[in-house]
């Protein structure tokens, strides 16, 4: 079921109440209540709404009234005369990156996902990923490319081809724990990390950065070059890494 936005055009009285801040306005306006309970009231001028609550705690929508509550703040819109409106499907907006193999709709890329507004299929991807014109031979979905130690290209659907598995195949147990010398394992704990194989006896964990391995630090851990051009040791606290660092952009 697609998300839906409520739109009302009409003669309305808008009251914003937040403790000592009480404002009332009346006019012919367009009222928009979004799926995340953001409530916006637009008049005839400018791009900014004349009243709003962003991602309110909750909202209630009726034909003649829309109210949103966020903490101590309330935004109430009373509709005196309704000119038009209704509930309409709404989706994330993004640029086209291919055709959905499930329904032949257009796949759209946003900052953290690729989704199909027609069948609602959605595939989360890293924010730094680039979608490439190289469909997966198994499922037909586009694939994306990221740098995680080396350039990797994988299917959008992690059930078809897992980025974590590809990183593990390349870098699991490649480096030693800087604290106890045991192997570092590729794990996901919120994000990708390298965690000591001796856990819980050794709790060392290092974030696996976006970038490519280009050198070895004197401490024995890899040096990554990030997309911004910075070179740094995998261990951001390493005191021996200064000789391998270069200024960003060089």
CATH architecture of the largest domain: Distorted Sandwich
Uncertain segments are 243-250
Structural class: mainly beta
Q: What is the CATH topology classification name of the largest domain?
A: Protein Yojf, Chain: A
Structural descriptors:
250 residues; mainly beta; Protein Yojf, Chain: A; 3 domains; seven-stranded antiparallel β-sheet; six-stranded mixed β-sheet; 1 helix; 4% helix; 48% strand; elongated; disordered C terminus
Describe the structure.
The protein is mostly beta strands. The protein has three domains: 4-89, Protein Yojf, Chain: A (Distorted Sandwich), CATH 2.70.180.20; 95-167; 171-244, no CATH class. It has one helix at 163-171, and strands spanning 4-18, 21-33, 39-42, 51-53, 58-61, 65-70, 73-89, 95-99, 106-109, 113-115, 122-124, 130-132, 143-149, 151-155, 184-189, 191-196, 205-207, 211-216, 222-225, 231-233. The strands form four sheets. The chain has a seven-stranded antiparallel beta sheet, with no helix packed on it. Strands 12, 13, 14, 18, 19 and 20 form a six-stranded mixed beta sheet that branches. It is elongated, with a radius of gyration of 25 Å. The model is unreliable at 243-250 (pLDDT under 50).
């Amino acid at each position: 079921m697609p998300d839906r936005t409520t739109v009302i055009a009409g003669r309305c009285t808008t009251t914003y109440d937040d403790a000592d801040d009480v404002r009332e306005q009346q006019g012919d306006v367009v009222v928009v209540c979004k799926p995340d309970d953001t409530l916006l009231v637009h008049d005839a001028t400018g791009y900014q709404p004349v009243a709003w609550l962003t991602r309110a705690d909750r909202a209630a929508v009726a034909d003649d009234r829309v109210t949103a509550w966020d903490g101590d703040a309330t935004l109430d819109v009373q509709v005196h005369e309704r000119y038009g409106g209704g509930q309409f499907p709404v989706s994330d907006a993004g640029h086209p990156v291919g055709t959905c193999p499930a329904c032949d709709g257009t796949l759209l890329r946003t900052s953290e996902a690729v989704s199909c507004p027609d069948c609602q299929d959605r595939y989360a991807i890293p924010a730094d990923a680039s979608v490439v014109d190289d469909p997966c031979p198994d499922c037909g979905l586009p694939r994306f490319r990221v740098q995680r130690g080396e350039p990797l290209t994988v299917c959008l659907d992690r059930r078809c081809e897992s980025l974590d598995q590809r990183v593990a195949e390349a870098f699991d147990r490649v480096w030693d724990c800087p604290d106890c010398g045991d192997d570092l394992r590729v794990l996901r704990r919120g994000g990708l990390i390298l965690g000591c194989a001796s856990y819980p006896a050794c709790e060392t964990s290092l974030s696996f950065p976006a970038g490519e391995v280009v050198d070895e630090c004197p401490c024995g851990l890899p040096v990554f070059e990030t997309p911004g051009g910075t070179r740094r040791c995998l261990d951001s606290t390493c005191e021996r890494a200064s000789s391998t660092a270069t200024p960003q952009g060089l």
